[in-house]
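If I may wish for something, please sit down with the protein I am sending here and say whether tokens and residues agree:
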Amino acid sequence: MIELDPKSTALVLIDLQKGILGNTLTPTTAHELLARGQALAERFRAAKATVVLVNVAFSADGGDVLRQRVDQAPAVPAGGFPAARQAYEHGYELLIVKDVTTSTVAEGHDMSMKHILPRLGRLVESGDILTRSKAA
């Protein structure tokens, strides 16, 4: 288990929006990805840790925006973190949750998981993460 301090930890969920989740995704389906992301967000909120949702641009009418509660973002560089690489470049320690990542192309996802993301942070499973409450 990886125990995280909610005072210095944020869950950053990137691109959980209809424009992305409407695609055929692999190895994790959109349904699985959203369910796992929501479960992690609930665990982080219960521990009073910050939850941030980063989205790409939306359609002009905002029709592709998911309607879900998002906490106030922590102090991060302008524009948030459109990619793990930017968070790494700003000196953040990254835990990349493998079972809450996916792609439209299996080969690209596999290459990222094997060769790129391990250079930026530690790859973990969502079940490995334990957040402790602020009272602890």
The chain has one domain: 2-131. The CA atoms of residues 42 and 51 lie 9 Å apart.
